[in-house]
Amino acid sequence: MGTMGWFRCRATTTSTPQVPEGPGVLELRVHGVNNTPPAALLDVEPDDVELARGDSLGSFWTLTDDALSRARALAAHHHGHVRPDVRREAYSWGPMARHSPSAPGVGGNRFVAAASRAGWVLLLPLGITNAAYWSRRLEPYDSAHPRRQPYGRGAPSVRVFGLGLTLLLVGGLQTVSLDLVVTQCLADADDVCAALPQWVAGLASLEWGRRAAILSVVPLLGLLLLLWLSASSRTRYEGPTSRAMTDPDAPGHRAGPAAARPVRERPLLAEPGLWSRWTLTRSMARLHVAAGLALVSGTLLMSQVWGSRARCTTLDKFDGTCLAHAWEPSRRPLVIVLVLAVVVLAGSAWETARARSEWHLPGEKGGRVARASVLLGAGVVVQLLTVGAVWWSPAREPSADGVDPVTGLSFVPVLLVGVMLLVAVVALTWRRDLTLSRAAVVVAVLVAAALVLVVLAPRDLPGLPAADDAAWVAGALGVLLAVLCLLPVAPRRRDGRVDLRQEAWRGAAPGVLLLVALGLQMMLVSLVVVASGDWLNGAHGPQCLTELDGAPVAAACDLEDGSRVTVPPAYAAFAVGTVAGLVPAVVVLAVLALVLRGIQSRSAPAAGPAQGASLPAGSVPPAVGTATGHWRRRYPAGTLEELYARPGLAGAVARARERAALAQFGLLYLGVLAGALGVALVATLVFALVEGAADPRLAPVVTLGMWTTAGLWIAALVRVVTAQESGRPLALLWDLLCFLPRSAHPLGPPSYAERAVPELAARIDAWLVALDEAETSGLEGPLPDRPDRFVVVSAHSLGAVLATAALFAERPDRMRDRVALLTHGTQLRAYFGRLFPEILGPRVLGTAGCRGTTLAADPWRDADPPGVVDGGVGDASPESLVGILGAGPVPAVGATGRTGGSGGGRGTVPPAWLSLWRRTDPLGMPCAAYAPNPVDRGADELDATGYVAWVATHGGYTRTEAYRVAFVELVERLRARRG
Description:
Keywords: Membrane, Transmembrane, Transmembrane helix. The chain is mainly alpha-helical. It has a domain at about 110-585 and about 670-735. The protein is built from 32 helices and twelve strands. It has an eight-stranded mixed beta sheet with strand order 2-3-4-1-7-8-9-10, sandwiched between helices. The two termini are about 35 Å apart.
């Protein structure tokens, strides 16, 4: 049975289907970020589950016949009991986010597996950039262009930013191959770096141009590695999804009344094209490869034309004599090819900025794909011409003054970082009003102009002393950038449309995420360059890789034979910037953690989760709605009443609440990291651009920065090499980053939701019409609805995000009053709703907004906006999640749980949605509000279902009494509404 088998709901004959009697309720469990195995998700032994359908990436599992018989025989209150009218299934999607594809025939090769994992580490900044793209303020759909995704402010800038990340990586790999190896290690055939393999050392006998032509394949191989990872995932995820979305019988396909609704009224998650990005990613991938080829070609050609002339290798000394030198007859072919490379690079950037999401199937041709293909072909031709021109061009004159002959490797990363940093800073204002955003653009242009002045005329700026006072200009630039960074986070009452306090970092999420992405990319590239240089330097330490004011950093690095390898100033500058930014950030985070820890320790929570229990002032309260009626029930580890009476367990619960509260300041920690990386990037520009900034007194800082960079690389290498064969490093990050479709960077990590969401929606739809394909073997045409069929989607943690997206992708007319949602341990409202308001925000969910954390024992005590008292659910429209899952807007509910009589115009029927959470869960928070409301309920903080009781944190919700009660209540609600 194929992976997308749930989409096939057609058969070949016309006889009436005979659907056998059986369970009418499907309990579909979806795991979260911990990638819970199917057996654990179904709470049985591994031998008690069997594959229903799927493959190694996504699959549906159910109990074996023997296990099902035992589960039905258990007591009704047992957590493993399966009712006779229920079919329990588990959906496993974790391998989509955590496992890397392998090339045919080399899946078991350890070297290939390690290279694949290393490649996934390089994709981390690309995934963060994609998250920044979706955190922008997404404009409503334009009815004149219904097939286009919402454009929004900043989309071209983010995509060009993503292209810059690719070029940074290519530039770093060029530095290793063309500068460190070709130019420095192989400069003298009698003094080759001892660390090089023999086959590489043998290239020292060739001329510089021929060595460079051969080893220019290294950055191209790095680019092809990213392309391979992207292409394999695009084939596995986006291809099947694109075909499924065009099937008129597939879930999510809009037809009839759904298509007749005004496009502007639909939430973004309800758009079937959201999960079909085939054309966009394919065309942009070709543009990125074309730009990478153009950069490699341009660097080789510039070095061949101007590398031996000292005054032509830096921008501030480049003049007309350099142009005359380039136009000599022997160099004209090189210059012509160089112009072609610049055209390809500029064309790739232009097409990347103009990229849109258009609906095309795999194999279909679109205009943008065709133009991208032309640019890719031009890039390949330019690369071939470059290799031929460099190989056969006359030998270059040796550089007598020791100038780096690889022209461009010093200023290209600085130029890219400068432009991308300005984009990130301006992005801090994208969710603000248009006036502030335009002002930010003006300031950014002024800063860019000042940077150009610093580079081109550092000693001749008007109005400054004659000495090397360009540092004053650099300081002014830093102040301007700091002021611009602080503008978006300044307190403001309102934006005119939304309360910015209900958005992450007060609406600065795009800029914060872009700062983190740029900082991490520069850090990763610096790790590659510094680690390679340290390896080539042999016994010399990493501090010997750079110079300050033309002199070695340490006396031990002053070698008479000149065998020391040095890296371009940009990477040493970032090492200094890393110390300047991250060290203060570590201090701030340490002080913050101590302050929060002190707040927590001054007030221990009350023992037991009883709502309304007497709590000390400032303590972490229990989850609202936690039931206590089952406290005296006997479990294998004892009764909850007895267990909470034990001082040791009560203290463990208190400590778990404290740790969970500290962990829920995650967005605050990420904001501090973004600020630190921003400081590091500004320091990098100052150190690299300002003449005289490389003061010898900075030697200790440079040494610390270089050793830190080398140490981080060693730690990352050990982590990658010792990881499991098929798993990606930092697996949790991929779960969180890979939910949204790729739109900013085509070579980034794939979105598992592009396959998981249609699969979930298809399984829901298939259950509502028939159990499986075997039951429909006698029917031709669309299957009729089965009014006696219901679905309860039980989603944990990040699985709740997938389930929510699947419900929006499902047909509302078929789903209403027949599908319920039971979430537990989720971050829908607190994290996703604040990071991506137009995708999972209050208007989409139909819940109240959520403010940020406060420095208190209970970090979310002020999260609910004013007026959310004994209700907590916003005014839900029929298009919101609670509107789809209910008969109307959600009622206000008092502390007693009864429907309030005055709900401000709200209805009286609660949604078919319940959500469980607990204070000991660092990732589990309410979905509607912290005040009592119809959706959120507390779960036990102690798990007594095993032999030994333990404090429950992020897992184990399905074993609680709260889960059993919630499931029964949701089934009763659905059946009551169907009459």
